[in-house]
């Protein structure tokens, strides 16, 4: 006959699982990416160290600084860059120096510091191989052919490639938001999340560029970034600057 004590203990354990708050499970699924769990944490900064900016390269260093905010330190895009790209693409770019990534998950908190308008934006760069070849996610208030999309730059002006987008995002002014980008080369997939980590606001399938650099910025606005983390399968070293001729 079955052991009554064993049956009792089994019933108690099942009841405990069933009574676990559903919100805890949903929160875990919303805030933790499966890809992030699979990959080791390869890069992390909260920009609290005074020399944190030394790990970055810029289209115009004079437009960037480490800023102190009520919530802590941040990398701030405080002015417009003196930069003219060969092809129509963002002007204000900060790239992690000397590192490229293939499969990755990037999470960062971002804040627009300009008043809301249709093209109010911040940009997130990846697969960056040169100033003429890269991807970027342009998160803006309203979509159009040149805003709120995933863009490809390949020896030509930027081209929108997302097969799924939304009606825009709400940056407000001086409000922090969480952004996540997931890239899986084996599936040619790119996913972009904004605040709600359960559903992407943009999805693209493209294999034009492989591994490349990761960066932050804006097309022509201002903003701040903090608490950057990158989980990746590996880090690929890079010799030489992203922007030749820039100090």
How do the helices and strands line up, and which of them pair or pack?
Blueprint: H1 4-18, H2 22-31, H3 34-38, E1 41-45, E2 56-58, E3 64-69, E4 72-77, E5 92-96, E6 99-101, E7 104-112, E8 121-130, E9 133-140, E10 149-154, E11 159-160, E12 176-184, E13 189-194, E14 202-205, E15 213-218, E16 223-232, E17 235-237
Antiparallel strand pairs: 1-16, 2-5, 3-4, 4-16, 5-15, 6-17, 7-12, 7-16, 8-9, 8-15, 9-10, 10-11, 12-13, 13-14
Please supply descriptive tags for the structure shown above.
247 residues; 8-stranded antiparallel β-sheet; 3 helices; 12% helix; 7-stranded antiparallel β-sheet; mainly beta; Jelly Rolls; 17 strands
Task: Write a concise synopsis of the structure shown.
With 247 residues, this protein is mainly beta. The protein contains three helices and 17 strands.
Structure description:
By secondary structure, the protein is mainly β. It has a single domain (33-237), classed as Jelly Rolls. The chain has three helices and 17 strands. It has helices spanning 4-18, 22-31, 34-38; strands spanning 41-45, 56-58, 64-69, 72-77, 92-96, 99-101, 104-112, 121-130, 133-140, 149-154, 159-160, 176-184, 189-194, 202-205, 213-218, 223-232, 235-237. Strands 1, 3, 4, 7, 12, 13, 14 and 16 form an eight-stranded antiparallel beta sheet that branches. Strands 2-5-15-8-9-10-11 form a seven-stranded antiparallel beta sheet, with no helix packed on it. Strands 6-17 form a two-stranded antiparallel ribbon. The longest helix is centred in the N-terminal third of the chain and has 15 residues, at 4-18. It starts with a helix and ends in a 10-residue tail after the last strand.
